[in-house]
Amino acid sequence: VSTQSTGGCQDLDMGSGSFMLSMLSLAAIASADSSSAVTMTIKRVSENSRTLGVGTVDQRGSGGDYQIDVTFGSSASIPTTIDTGSSTLAVPSNGVIAWGDCGSCQYSMCPLSAYSVDGQQICTPSETSPPSSNCCTDAGQITPYYDSTATRNPDETRGNCYGTGGWFGEVASDTVVIGKTITLDDSDFVAITDNLCSGSTYFWDSYDGTPTGKAIMGLAYSELAGNNPSTAAAISKNNLPLQFGLYMCPAASGTQGTGPNADPGSGVGQFQIADVETLVNTSLAEDLNVSWVPVTQDSYYSVYIAKVEVVKTLTGEIYKSSENFKSNNNYNTILDSGTGDLGSVPSDIYEAIGEGLAAWNSEALQTVLDGYCAGDVQGWPTVVLSFSAGPGATGAPTKIGLAPWVYLYGNACGFALSNSGSEHGVFGNVFLSQYYNIFDQLNSRVGFMIPSTAGRQGQCGCVYGKRNVDECTCFQVNGIGGSSCDQVQSGAADILTGFYSLTEAGSSVKANSSGDGSSDHMWIVITVAVVCSVVAVAIVAGLVIWLSKRRAAKRLEREEMRSSLVAGAPWTQPGHTYTYHTYAQPPTNNVVPA
Fold first, then answer.
1. Closest CA to 437 of 279, 550, 295
2. Which of 8, 407, 408, 587 keeps 20 to 30 A from 341, CA to CA?
3. pLDDT over threshold 80, residue 89
4. How far apart are CA 286 and CA 289, in angstroms?
């Protein structure tokens, strides 16, 4: 789920057209750089600590979503997608049905889309009636669902569409419990009454005739939600910090439950709301080092890629470095846990990656593009992405690595990263699952931390591999093995160590400011000097006026006193009444007392 709108719908197409564009672009690059080929052998082939809440994450469904169980009111626990690419909190409700067996009509038209909110149509224009029986099968009421008869407000209708699917519903208010430990009282959310189509797909498609649905918990900024109730607003309303940690184990779609040799009840990840200090001290991370990536726009978690380097994983030797990309504030890539793949990047970023791989070994690149597999990925370089605070930013950018066992499918059998064909891109949960992430809305940043070996084992059950239901598929690096992919030989250990050493914390800040605040300090000094001068003049003038009035008052008091004494009447000193204002003091930190 990567796009949100309260009116029209903008699809980010990650489908076959994008992939073909990707392949054609890289093929052209590989052919152009064939003279720089390097010889290479090619084969043809939760713990609940002192925190505001911890929830176990499961990955279910055909879209590769990571989900957590959420209870809405007195309803049964409902699997809920953790989506940093949207903001609305929404749940299936009474009357909403799943459409199944749509056949070709599913891809040619979008029925059920003639709903409007505030005069704007939701999703794509099409028919005004539900799908006919000869087009789609009514799979029945989606279950589990929120029984919202008493809490729904029919006067407050809301709608939304995403890259795939959409919905229409009414605002409800009730208690929401995330992962059994995070309670949000009196929270607003959308009780979905209609299942809509966007991107040629319904929000709930029933391929097997089973009306199983899921809720969605959008965790981006409230600004993105528009008039829709947002998860961020519910969190703030309950005096919890807009800061959360998210760890998603690398896992195949449909994986859930506990992994081999993992901690009981561990699932395939962890979601936690807490202050940053608590999140940083997680046992899931290797150490306390956080590489913070600035968020450039407070709606999505938008980030700006300032440089691309393709480097030798073992040594950091740079094969090719590309920078000076478009200086455009709208030129961004979002971090979206609701996109179930690696994602796509803007065209020139994609081309820079392709040029770097060709500079390393154009023959290996061409082999993969021709549809062959290159075997293990041990010799392939790491793509290092440098993130800054935007065009013209100052300070060192933050460097985050993209591993070859992530950007290549399987045994180096294809590229998992796509070309968006535009100035916008999306990094999905496959990218994020390389790290433990901290989403910090209060400071407009996202933190990347290297997962610890113990954390991978205890939480995921697979240390250097990918969960596939109840088994582990090890990363395609020679020397990694074992049922939990925890046996690593020296050569593979060097590769892993080299990869993680390429992640570097930065100090980038937006243009017209600096990392040490010197520019800000200069303006502060100037401002203070001007203000002080103005205040000084005002004080002197005020003193002169006050003294003259005081002298006049004293003269009057003496005259009154003299008159009173002469007349024999009592004399009293005029009193003063002070009004004390009580101000609500802000909390000293973001921790809510237990």
1. 279
2. 8
3. yes
4. 8
pLDDT at 101: 63
Residue for token pair 């959308």: 190
Per-residue pLDDT at 532 exceeds 50: no
Written as six digits, the tokens of 452 are 């610890």
Q: What is the pLDDT of residues 396-444, one digit of tens each?
A: 999 999 999 999 987 778 889 999 988 889 999 999 999 999 999 999 9
- Measure CA of the first residue to CA of the last residue in the chain; give whole Å: 34
CB under 8 Å to 514, separation ≥6 — which residues?
394, 395, 520
- Is the link from the previous residue into 144 a cis peptide, with omega within 30 of 0? yes
Strand partners, 508: none
Residue 171 burial (CB count, 10 A): 20
Q: Give the residue from 24, 1, 100, 13 showing the smallest Cα distance to 366.
A: 24
Q: Is the pLDDT of residue 588 over 60?
A: no
Report residue 575 as tokens.
């009193």
Angle at 349 between CA 347 and CA 354, to 5 degrees: 95
Q: What is the pTM of this model?
A: 0.77
State yes or no: pLDDT of 577 exceeds 60: no
Q: Reading across the β-sheet that carries 137-141, which strands appear in turn?
A: 137-141, 97-100, 205-206
| CB contact at 8 A, 72 and 86 | no
Alpha-carbon span 244 to 306, nearest angstrom: 26
Instruction: Give yes or no for a contact between 155 and 42, defined as CB atoms under 8 angstroms apart.
Output: no
Cα 5–Cα 166–Cα 100 angle in degrees, nearest 5: 165
Share the mean pLDDT of the chain. Answer: 75
- Angle 347-369/16-32 helices, nearest 10 degrees? 80
Nearest CA to 418 among 361, 370, 349, 465? Answer: 349
Whether the bond into 586 is cis, omega within 30 of 0? no
User: What percent of the chain clears pLDDT 70, i.e. is strictly above it?
Assistant: 67
Q: Identify any residues that bridge with 438 across adjacent strands, giving them in sequence order.
A: 245, 447
Quick check: 60 pLDDT over 90? no
The secondary element (H helix, E strand) that includes residue 92 is strand 89-92
Residue type, 328: N
- Per the DSSP assignment, residues forming a β-bridge with 564 are none
pLDDT digits (tens, 9 = 90+) for 25-36: 555 555 444 333
State CA 439 to chain mean position distance: 7
Torsion-angle region of 366 (φ positive above 0: left; ψ -120 to 50: alpha; else: beta): alpha
CB-CB neighbours of 561 under 10 Å: 12
